[in-house]
């Protein structure tokens, strides 16, 4: 379903921008659920999810959802200083990839970044670090989106309505508040304005369409010109 979800809007936005596929890089702390998010977006296993205590993804890899949107899964930050250094270097290289149009203009290869947060935790330190030290110095802030995963685990399991596969009223208002608080805290910590994050659950496949809506509604209107 997701590979054809709002296909007309995606096609219109891609054609408006004049190029496709658009490249969207998914970043975040280890275990936030980046690979699970890829699988939820694609509705099949395209990325390996970690099931033990160890981090899972160790390399950048990409996959096309359709001819217009290509997603990149990346390794998570926050497991060790050594790995963070390597992953930061790899991500900076990816964010700076470029191509040239007959040698006249240089364009960035990556079009959008989505920062995934683990909604079941409060620690935002890794996210601030990723933004301040890796993403913001190498990528324009108006092409960065935030999303809160693991909505189902943000409070005790009794607040998840399994029958309806959605949060109960208590959890829903908690998640609403959380989205506003994450936006404010990110803006304070980075000095950059961001859209209000969507909350969703990759594992429960809840609100994944909202995540896609945010992506579709924020597709760039032009290529990213570097020079
Ligand atoms: N409850 C719940 N668990 C989730 C959700 N999404 C992911 N998880 C679990 O979180 C763990 C980490 O998920 P991954 O998708 O591997 O996370 P990642 O961000 O790709 O991790 P790295 O590759 O190590 O950076 C796994 O045990 C998932 O099953 C979710 O929406 N809800
Ligand atoms: Mg992963």
Structure characterization notes:
The chain is of the alpha/beta class. It contains 6 helices and 10 strands. The protein has a single domain (7-217), classed as Rossmann fold, CATH 3.40.50. The chain has helices spanning 7-17, 34-42, 81-95, 125-135, 169-190, 208-217; strands spanning 22-28, 61-64, 69-73, 98-101, 105-108, 112-118, 144-149, 160-161, 166-167, 198-199. Strands 2-3-1-6-7-10 form a 6-stranded mixed β-sheet, sandwiched between helices. A two-stranded antiparallel ribbon has the order 4-5. Helix 3 crosses helix 4. The chain is globular and about 60 Å long. The mean pLDDT is 96. Guanosine-5'-triphosphate binds next to helix 2.
Q: In the CATH hierarchy, what is the architecture at level 2?
A: 3-Layer(aba) Sandwich
Mean pLDDT: 96
Q: How many whole angstroms does the radius of gyration measure?
A: 17 Å
Contiguous uncertain segments of 5+ residues: none
What is the fourth-level CATH superfamily? P-loop containing nucleotide triphosphate hydrolases
Question: Helicity range of the residues?
Answer: 25-40%
Structure at a glance:
With 227 residues, the protein is α/β, with parallel strands linked by helices.
